[in-house]
Design a protein that fits this description.
Blueprint: H1 4-13, E1 18-24, E2 30-36, E3 45-51, H2 55-62, E4 65-71, E5 75-86, H3 89-95, H4 98-103, E6 113-127, H5 131-145, E7 153-158
Antiparallel strand pairs: 1-2, 1-4, 3-6, 4-5, 5-6, 6-7
């Protein structure tokens, strides 16, 4: 990830702790669920813990194309990529933390615990520097002037 846009995606992703993982079920229906992001340094990949028998694991096994959407008060990131189930005890131990233990008390060494690695292919982001106040002021300015709302920075990036 060397382009300025890719670095911007990495900068925005590091501020998010949760993402909505969207998968496709065997009938083609899209399903989203909140997932805790497990790695702070974003290098194009996202990591999530899951149970081997869960629907999300079944979904990514049969249809690996996924989307992860993240949002905060002033930024949004939508990342599209390929998901793969990873059963690597060393990686599970590396990423393990108390938050994960609340959901998966059996621990990282248990065979029922796996990782989902999302290898990012592209991302789109929206960033509104200044947060809510800047957004409200921009909306008000657009309304008063009749000019189109310019809501900050928006780019589509190939990772």
């Amino acid at each position: 990830m060397s382009s300025p846009e890719s670095r911007k995606v990495a900068e925005l992703v590091k501020d998010h702790r949760f993402g909505m993982l969207t998968t496709r079920d065997p009938f083609g229906t899209l399903m989203s669920r909140p997932m805790a992001l497990q790695e702070v340094e974003f290098d194009g990949d996202l990591w999530f813990f899951a149970e081997r028998g869960s629907r999300k694991v079944q979904h990514v096994t049969s249809s690996p194309q996924v989307n992860v959407a993240m949002s905060s008060n002033d930024s949004w990131v939508s990342l599209t990529g390929e998901a793969v189930v990873v059963d690597d005890v060393a990686k599970k131990r590396e990423l393990w933390n108390g938050g994960v233990e609340a959901w998966l008390p059996q621990g990282p060494d248990d065979d029922s615990v796996v990782l989902i690695k999302v290898e990012g292919r592209s991302a789109e982001y929206w960033d509104t520097p200044g947060g809510r106040i800047a957004t409200v002021l921009s909306f008000a300015k657009a309304k008063v002037t009749g000019q189109r709302y310019e809501g900050g920075e928006n780019e589509r990036v190939e990772l």
